[in-house]
Design a protein that fits this description.
231 residues; alpha/beta; 10 helices; globular
Length: 231
């Protein structure tokens, strides 16, 4: 068994890379998806978020009429008020506990499995104290990088939803991207702490070849753990 962390800043394309690994048999757990599940009505994380932020008089309504958490409003608020760490202290421990539970389920069924956690904030959660030791909980770490202008363009395209944006919207989305990037640890600091660094601005076939090269190394390590006599 092998626990792999896949991380990268906003717009780095780590989800694309994760999908490539998944196509080749790696079990991928998406931290964001797990977080969304835990924020559903009736879950403890959902209630904890509402209970925490309703005490701030400047906080907007956090729940929609249908009871779902208004995640965009929550995100805008915590970024604008510098309260992101408060949200992370609620969400991160629960997400990590669920990741661990799912990993153990997979390993019981498939001892040689490679389980990859895709998360943008592996190092940030560790440094910020919302999940101490998170980076050290993986056997291997992969960092996905891309030039900042590429990352910003990807973010703008994603939040724009494919529609034609006005100049004002583009500027606002670009500034939002830059603000979010500034809140993340620079790739230059993360790279020396990772086992593999994958630069994600090349052609898809080049990316696929790099993913396969890394996967071979991961499979070899997983096999060695099951049988230490393998050369």
């Amino acid at each position: 068994m092998l626990r792999v962390g896949l991380t990268g800043g906003l717009g780095s394309g780590k989800s694309t890379v994760a999908a490539m690994f998944a196509r080749h048999g790696v079990h991928v757990l998406e931290a964001d998806q797990i977080g969304r599940e835990l924020m559903q009505p009736g879950r403890p994380v959902y209630q904890a978020i509402l209970d925490h932020f309703r005490h701030y008089p400047d906080a907007p309504p956090m729940a929609l009429p249908n009871g779902q958490l208004d995640r965009p409003a929550l995100a805008r608020y915590v970024f604008a008020t510098n309260r992101l760490d408060e949200l992370n202290r609620i969400v991160h421990p629960a997400v990590i506990a669920e990741q661990q539970r799912r990993m153990q389920t997979i390993f019981r069924q498939e001892p040689a499995a490679i389980v990859m956690v895709e998360s943008a904030l592996i190092f940030e959660a560790d440094r910020g104290g919302t999940a101490p030791g998170q980076g050290r909980s993986f056997d291997k770490l992969i960092l996905v990088t891309a030039p900042e202008d590429v990352r910003i363009a990807r973010y703008v395209a994603r939040v724009g939803g494919g529609r034609t944006l006005s100049s004002e919207e583009k500027l606002a989305f670009k500034e939002d991207a830059r603000r979010r990037i500034r809140m993340q640890i620079p790739d230059a600091e993360k790279a020396p702490l990772c086992d593999f660094v994958l630069e994600n601005s090349r052609q898809p076939e080049e990316m696929e070849a790099t993913v396969l090269h890394i996967l071979l190394a991961l499979k070899k390590l997983s096999a060695e753990r099951l049988d230490p006599n393998i050369p």
